[in-house]
Fold this sequence. Notes:
Number of domains: 2
CATH topology of the largest domain: TIM Barrel
Number of helices: 14
Structural class: alpha/beta
Distance between the termini: 62 Å
Order of helices and strands: HEHEEHEEHHEHEHHEHHEEEHEEHEHEH
Amino acid sequence: MVYMMLVKRILFHLIIVAVGILIIFHSFPVFTFAATKDADLEVSGWIPYWADSKGIKDATKHIKDIDIVFPFAYTLVSDGSIKDNASLSDSEWKKFIKLARKNKVEVIPTIMTSDGGTVHAILSNDKLRKAHIEKIMKEVKRHDFDGIDIDYEGKLSSTIDHFSEFLEELKEELDDEGKLLTCTVEARTPPDSLYKNVPAVIEYANDYKEIGKHCDRVEIMAYDQQRADLKLNDEKAGEPYFPVSDVDWVEKVVKLALQDIPEEKILLGIPTYGYHYEVAVAPNWYKGYTRIGALNMPDILDIADEYDVEPGRNKAGEMSFTYFPKSSIYKVLNALPVPEGTRKGNEAAAKALLFANATGQTVPVNYASYSDAGAIEDKIELAREYGLRGVAIFKFDSEEDQNMWKLLR
């Protein structure tokens, strides 16, 4: 009898505790991993030295949405020293860096070069390589940066092992100071998409496995695709196709990189800009693209307004439009009817193709393709789908599609 009463009393207290817990959970917000799903990507981006005032203003405005800022500041000099093009000691930068630290945003400047010969000369020489690392470390310590970002492009295939050795040695020095090593690398298109006939031996300048081993972050520049992917060029023919960054190509790049680089280290590089081309429209195809220049959102939209063209989303998932320049004798083709099934923004190119097919002539038409918030969103979702560490935006300069920030937030 006493035993039964004891059991009932214990059950009664357990019920009271359970009810209390339910009341607490219903009375206060419940934070779970699912609730922070939209914030699970690390957000980083570059402030370019040629627009650093605008970039600082942009990053300052959105400082709570950023985890890492890469000042795109240093360039490699032929003697192994590094040149500060952004004047990082100026008060504007000092004020921003102080704000970044207050908001726990890491500041990791980039050293950039595209001179493969200089890189090889420095890194293949033990003495010069050591001196180069010393100069990097001196600059990191002087400014108390959170690390350094290495962006050495255009390297020779013969530099591959020297570059890996350089990263290993630099990483050891940075580790001793509690600093990070991040590496920016060119996107690698899978060989069966890059070549018509895949070579038996492909000589790369980057050893992805070594980079994945030594670098704390690896920013993959998944942009400036253009005509790199032969398969997609064929699959998406029928209208101008010269993308900054087709999400289908980016997925191929990511899947290939993941074979050698851990997902928790990869930051997917995402562009915020576009390009402007003159396209040679020949009978039955768009046969040639001559670059007019790179463009940011404000200039692109000004051109669309000037020519009264409504951009549309193209086969690459980017926004684009075509038009005949005012100086072109072919602007009279604007009077032609729009061929059935023409994608929005592609009207001028479709009319040019109609005329080329009828006359056998090659007709020039202008084409702009750019990365708006919609194209950026596709890349963000891809980074989530593949469990990547985060995204790296090129670039912060106040001229990106401002709707991007809603996606990153």
